[in-house]
Amino acid sequence: xxxxxxxxxxxxxxxxxxxxxxxxxxxxxxxxxxxxxxxxxxxxxxxxxxxxxxxxxxxxxxxxxxxxxxxxxxxxxxxxxxxxxxxxxxxxxxxxxxxxxxxxxxxxxxxxxxxxxxxxxxxxxxxxxxxxxxxxxxxxxxxxxxxxxxxxxxxxxxxxxxxxxxxxxxxxxxxxxxxxxxxxxxxxxxxxxxxxxxxxxxxxxxxxxxxxxxxxxxxxxxxxxxxxxxxxxxxxxxxxxxxxxxxxxxxxxxxxxxxxxxxxxxxxxxxxxxxxxxxxxxxxxx
Length: 286
Description:
The chain is of the alpha/beta class. It is 40% helix and 20% strand. The chain is built from nine helices and ten strands.
């Protein structure tokens, strides 16, 4: 028998080569799978920046301007035509408009009003600065909440709210009404350079309410210096809104145009005015 190399040795080398080749293929597969996985991850991450989603597009759009029509007078003297025309003017000027009905006008409604982000507020409301039918005092803005001496005790104690009655209707109940102390001490947040129109009797008969609203962030306050008939108020405020929004006039120009074309109240001689005087050049629409 020959003493040469064992016959099994060549077979062992061949097996070794096959195993090495198998390991090579296995690692090659692993590498390909990892590269494919990385490709998928990169594609997923990169896709939003290359193709913005609708949400990202919407987020870049400027916020819409907000306005409010507060119809406290609607409790006793509804006027749907007033609301319809005011809405048309404001929407045409690019405002998102909220209509606050009479039953919404509460003490708490006024408390949070500055924080709502309105750029324009139209208050169609009862107001007065007459105490005991003759004596002048601070301006009261009516709510639609019937007066109850047991409620809002703190605010009553600190002379922030009081009670008021519509003087032309002696059968009408007393309602809670806010005064300038409420604006200064009890309101939450600040107005956003808001133009405030107060369509109510003597709303600027004394300046305490207007001063407090401007201190709270209002750009200007427009209102009446005396008693005003409800129908004349609505006609004048609509004319004023048209001048401010459709025609783009300044506060001073719009007030003067309204008083020139509509005129003072025919019975009580009330005229529209504004505060502070230096904001007459303010324009609601650029």
